[in-house]
What does this fold into?
Amino acid sequence: MRSILSRLIALAVLATPLVAQDDTRPTVAVLPFVNSAIGAANAELAPLSKGIADLLITDLGMNPGIRMVERENIQQLLDEQRLAQDGRVDDATAARIGKLLGAKHMVTGSFITDRTGQMVVTLKAIDSETGRISWTHRDQGKTDDFLALVAKVASAANTGLKLPALTSQAKAATAERTAEQKKIPFQAVMLYSRALSAQDAGQKEEAIALFTQTIDRFPDFDDARKARAKLTGGGAAR
It folds into this structure.
């Protein structure tokens, strides 16, 4: 089943924006999430801005009927355009980014936590062709069940954006991924997010070290294993 999961992810994720010219599937891009946490939690959760977007991209990418723009391609464009790295862009800018990426649906979002470990995520999608908001969503869950929350949001986005329904094979792979992710604690997500932040900052060795630390401590976290392989040239794009 794991090979099925890997193939679906590889097929569904957009390798480069240029591929969009010959592919009629709807394209979705996810910007880094805005960290709305208050006080000390803001600095502590800062890396999650990258992590939640990355995980949502992977979950949405389980649908072979759509194309996802890779997080690295989005990051490269943000760097080139000197845009905010924390996802703070207005709707017009989001639409412009979508056009540059060849993505019709630009998903933006924010997250906040409280003292009880409850996390609230708020999302919206901008139609890059019209510049209008095409979908909004709000969801919440415990940080202890963070990956389940991301999976739930991905399912809501697939429905809300009227994307193609999952195939039976994709449903099976999604169920497998959901079951595997129940083993992954929030500490693993935060460590993984720190690795992504280091990668985006150009700190390759630090990113590799953090991905390795994530894998050593949480060997069931396949996302970290694939990210490290990709960064070291030892694996295909997710």
